[in-house]
Amino acid sequence: MKKCLGLLLILWIPFGCETEHKLTFEPLKLQGESCANCPEIEITLPNALDDSGVATAINRSLREEVIALLSFSENEDIENVDQAMGSFTESYKELKTKFPDEIGWEAKINGEVIYEDAHLITIVVNSYTFTGGAHGYGSTSYLNFDKVEGTELENWELFDDLEGFETYAESKFKTQEDIPQEANINATGFMFEGDAFHLPNNVGYTQDGVQLIYNQYEVASYADGPIILTLPFSEINSYLKYKVGS
């Protein structure tokens, strides 16, 4: 019996160490107004429950992300997600009044935690919006947070050696996209501004490594879709401020 208890204790200790740094979330699900002339709005976000600075920062940043995706008028003073959903709905209703044949709008936003350790947490927000025209627009956003400082991080704050990381990422990007290493980054049809490689607007930690996502139109045409490059931690740890597995 003592041997069994000892084995259970050994098994329990690493499990406890693995989970003790995890934040607590509950899903926050929101839907838009239901009516004949209402757009379809579906939102699912992780809502941080902890009484901590990083939990406050996460919930605030997610709220701001949704507001930016749904708001249409720069003159509106929108402070919360409900108001943003109302703005999206009223914009469609107004257009529908002027143009009765307008196709229904929709907005689908989904967020989830995709990486977390004792120091950093990354949340990905996938969204799709259709507001008329030939097609809708899908995008992916990464939100990275320093759990100790309780702040959202800018992309450059993820790195100890940003310049070195950019040089390495460019080489890997060229290899992935079949661009000769000595050629200009736009040699095969990409549209990097100034003919120079740069990191995307969205960089995030994942279980597989640091992921770079160039959303549609960022460096290529809509038809090309998002361009994704994942760099394993084992190859890039020396460039990172938040190192993994070392």
TrEMBL record:
Domain DUF3298: 165-234
Deacetylase PdaC domain ranges (all copies): 37-136
UniProt xrefs under InterPro entries: DUF3298 (IPR021729), PdaC (IPR025303), PdaC/RsiV-like_sf (IPR037126)
Pfam families per record: DUF3298, PdaC
Gene3D superfamilies attached to this UniProt entry: Fervidobacterium nodosum Rt17-B1 like (3.30.565.40), Heat-shock cognate protein, ATPase (3.90.640.20)
Signal peptide: none
Protein name: DUF3298 and DUF4163 domain-containing protein
Species: Flagellimonas iocasae
